[in-house]
Specification:
The chain has about 325 residues and is mostly helical. It has one domain. Helices cover about 75% and strands about 0% of the residues. The protein has 15 helices and no strands. The longest helix has 26 residues. It is globular. The chain starts with a helix and ends in a 13-residue tail after the last helix.
Length: about 325
Amino acid sequence: MAGLMVKVSIKSQCYPESLRKHPHFLAFLALFAVCFFWGTTYLGIRMALESFPPAMLVCIRYLLSGTILTIFAWSRKAYLPRGKELLGTVIFGLITIGLGNGCLAWAELLIPSGMAALFVTLSPFWMVGMEALIPGGARLHGPTIAGMLIGMAGTALLVAPSAIQNGVSGPVFSGFLLLQLGSWGWSIGSILQRRHRTKAHPVVSGAIQQLATGVAYLIPAFALPRPAMHWSARSVGAIVYLVIFGSIVGYSAFIYVMNTLPVSLVTIYNYINPIIAVLLGWLIYREVIGWRELAAMGIIFLGVWVVKHFGDKAAAATVVPAVALAKE
């Protein structure tokens, strides 16, 4: 089913015959989609926020994507969870998507989209930390802790100047805290979901989780005070883009490559997404890219690589990245 969601028509003149016949050609094409489209969602969120408050944005985005994917699953006669199985799927979706992407939307009111992408890159630290606290999870060890400290040093390089100037209530530090809360939700939700027993296909579970998130956000979307919305073609187009390429195409492609390619290869998107987000933020909004931002990016990437490299070796297990839905 996931394969059907990511297949594209390929004209013979576009690719060499040998490349098109490669057994993993579609999987590599899907991985490219994850790396590119999830990197653009940070810019898409910032554009959508020009007209829509965060709760309304999350509500509309996931109501649309969840409904479309659920209808698709139902039309394909895919198995739909029910009872306790459905309840668990919904709860884990609200923790992962609702808290994770909800915090991202609110954080982008405070900080540039490229900076938000760099802070989200720290989510593997939360993943290994939460895994270590759960019974049966992989324990923390020296190299992993060292990698986390390296990554936090890069984060400090980004956060410290604003924190010194504006205090802990400044926009950068507040945005950082929001995204760490979102990363915590994304990580713990992903870990619990991985242990959740369900017969549903991952794409079907994702559809239900997105739909549940959209329904849950109906309450804050209409209950929270909000300024009068002035719809613009750019903001509406950004939401449509997030629904199609961030939630439907991006997520389905992610599920496909996770089932097809080695996890060590798939997690390359953790490094490419922030680079795309930073470049697009600079190109469209002229977000600052100076030596401090570039140095922080390199240090954070080094920390993430150390955690992933030595963490995978020690645990001898698959690291489950956050689901997306741009994220993720």
